[in-house]
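Hi D.,

Good news: the full-assembly prediction came through. Inputs first.
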Amino acid sequence: MLDLKFVRSNLDLVKGMLEKRGYDLDLSDFQSLDEKRRSILSGLEQLRHRRNKVSDQIAAMKKNGEDTSSLVAEMKTVSKEIKEIETELPGVVDQVNKVLMLIPNMPHESVVVGESADDNPVIRKWGTIRDFAFNPLPHWEIGEKLNILDFSRAAKIAGSRFSLQSGIGATLERALINFMLDVHINHHDYVEILPPFLVNSDSMTGTGQLPKFREDLFKVDGWDLFLIPTAEVPVTNIHRDEILSSDQLPIRYVSYTPCFRSEAGSYGKDTRGLIRQHQFNKVELVKFCCPEDSDGELESLTADAEEILQRLELPYRVVSLCSGDLGFSAAKTYDLEIWLPEQEVYREISSCSNFTDFQARRANIRFKRKKESGTELVHTLNGSGLAIGRTLVAILENYQQPDGSVIIPEALRPYLDGLSVIKREGAG
RNA sequence: GGAGAGAUGGCCGAGUUGGCUGAAGGCGCUCGCCUGCUAAGUGAGUGUGGGGCGAAAGUUCCACCGAGGGUUCGAAUCCCUCUCUCUCCGCCA
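Then the structure:
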């Protein structure tokens, strides 16, 4: 969330931002609500001040054996009054917070104003798109023919939007996870994290999934636990309610987890294949840094994710999300989009964002500079590095051969016992 | 799941007849002094959040001793609920 003081003193700026993002949020009574909160609070504090003073006085008088009954009687009514205000205040505070929680982050100054994904500027392209001498197949056909993907049995076991991989299809998934982790750990200086895959509502609130996006989450019945929609949630919450030291920063974590999303509101989209699933694997990059470093850290985080695609020799492009396409918490986002030859489109495979202090304020993640008093909020960033399932899709589709086999990118072969091509195996 | 113990500042750790305790003491850290380096010594300072006043340095008020409620003029201290940690038993990958 944004800083209350910032919103209070820059209300017009915030309203203009909402418009650029295409948000319909009414802030007209925010000011009066905030003033009401403050006036109640200061009245309460005056009463409490009086109570503290007189209580001390009573203590002193009792020591001297003086009669305190009239003061005690007076304080009884003051206490009652305090209690009344104390019951009134949380409601008003909640109202202010509720509004504050619904305001998205201020976009970075470099973010282009636009309405939708069509307005996202392309920053760069990498790799050459292969010229197919035959009609390339979609990955689900390739996978089923190779007997490594089985969607109908996945549906029997769990339902739609689940997948089952077998044989080399399962091994390839595991190889991709290890390959990506190794690159980020050994070449990019990230620390590996294996977090809980279920988290409580405090954590979901800390990273912004709650309260606004509850319907996107799977909840465990009878528990205050949710299945994580991304490793961002547990990993960012590692430092919730902590005060870090500036010489610890930047902190860079990489984490493999499965991700669970209800995909509410995406009926009819990507109904076939691995693109949109209730459960998928992802290697996530998460950073905590000083405010002045977050612009640079976003560039390097994006480059780290790109390197995976480069090593796998998969053609992609980088787009910068425009104001209308930008996520709720993000100040700036680069999407990595992979080329899919069958559909002849670029599809998102990674989303790298700088959240500035927006998540940190909500999750209360602060740091202290050496030789300075006071605390500041850290900046948080994260990005996929990468989505495993979609990478598998990209490999199957971009490396498919006329005979139905699929060449394995060289960088991955050490993780597959040297295997260089996937051919049909085993009966199903 | 059963029985018991605990939760205090960056860390350790006092504080149970309720009342100058925002909290002793220690460690750590910062600044100064001293010692030709290092170590030791020595003096001072050192929580967070919010409100008011101030251009600022600052000043003042309120809150916070796991979380939430209660008793009381007054609670870190008493009562209730919850969460977490530890020990023992049971179960289990």
